[in-house]
Amino acid sequence: MTDAPVISVRGEAVLEAEPEIARLSVHVQSQESDRRTALDRLTERNQRCLDLVKSYGEAVEKLETGGLSIMPLLKYRRREGDIRAYRGTVWIKITVADFAVLGELVARLGDLERTYVNGPEWELRRDSEVYERAARQAAHEAVARARGYAEALGSRLTGLVELSDEGLSNRDSGAPVALAAGYARAPGGAAEEPEPIDLEPETQIVRATVEARFTATAPDLG
């Protein structure tokens, strides 16, 4: 152990950055009086949705099926049986890397029959260099703050005792856009493609905090 004075400080950094990816959550549904028909309709609509997303190629970074369900809907809540319909749902998760196609993709997904679109949720990638940059800036601030305290006391820093990372976090995204498609298209042939939705990426706020302890020479308190 050393008897040298110790200066404990906290270093903080707050950075703003443009998002790197956008996540969409899509629910495709069917509802029919017959279970098999409900499943067949769900399969068709799910495939139509997947084909649409895959047509964007590398602009879509990841396409995943989050879950599937087929459930009976009862006529009366207090009685078992008396099934009035079967409802099927497929949950599809989409990660988009090219924001140039995002507005068009959201509009076209929202135009599909029995399809609900939620998003986008703007994010940075887990390995984004922004997190490392924020951590370095927080560490630099801790050193500068400790040095300032030492100079105010007429001493100087001599060593590092401990540096602890309190973690990094990005701000929760704002309320996403929600689109629900109609149950059926208007008669008279194929419908025109919907106009792309103008979506402005949400600035991401990245925070980093570190705590540090430094040894210092004896202060001049005279």
TrEMBL record:
It comes from the Bacteria. Transmembrane segments: none annotated. Gene3D superfamilies: Protein of unknown function (DUF541), domain 1, Protein of unknown function (DUF541), domain 2. GO terms for biological process: DNA damage response. Pfam families: SIMPL. This is DUF541 domain-containing protein. It comes from Actinomadura darangshiensis.
